[in-house]
Amino acid sequence: MKVKTILVSQPRPKLENSPFFDLQKKRKVKIDFVPFIHVKGATVKEIRLQKIDLTKFSAIILTSRYAVDHYFRICEKMRFKVPDSMKYFCQSEAVAFYLQKYVVYRKRKIYVGKRSFADLCPIIGKHNSETFLLPTTNKLKPEVPNLLNSLEINWKQSVFYKTVISDLSEFANVTYDVLVFFSPSGIESLIHNFPDFKQNDTRIAVFGAITKKAVEENGLKVDIFAPSPKFPSMSMALDSYIAKANKR
Questions:
Q1: Model pTM?
Q2: 27 and 239 Cβ atoms separated by less than 8 Å
């Protein structure tokens, strides 16, 4: 069956040169963007109930831009001035670059991993005299605390923001040829909003093995998968699939 409409379960890209926009023009398909989940910041009261004293930490572990935003948001609300001596351990260059929104990069001690959290751990392990805070989401991957515990460092996790399911009731009577998911939370939102969802002729595209597993565990079929050696990005995988489907 041909592909004419695609729903991407994420906010609309802010960059006009997004590959999704290029795909839309190239293949003459309609692509809508609707976040199936959204992030809600924890309140100061919720942080205090977790018995977090910001003054007790000499280093911060940052795994995402959300972590950066919500750490500094809470610091501001608690009127805590982050000391210049604070050390920042960022999971990727993208997170480290985003940190410049809040600190003068060249004047801070910032350590950067390559991409995965496992890449960052050896760097963290070399600073075992520090007291680490991990500001995170309520849906933290189990591997993160397991890896930190294996380092035998002094660290504490705190939920600074939560992943919340979006209300998708307005789409109850809308169908798309392809649904695109990037996380298990997106699948959770789909099933929560539409418990009687039947895939029928809808194709499902997923990014990552964990997301693929979530789809299959809910009795659904994955039709398009990325990343792979041939298609490192979702837009490339979609492009290839549409090219074949629309030739029929």
A1: 0.77
A2: yes
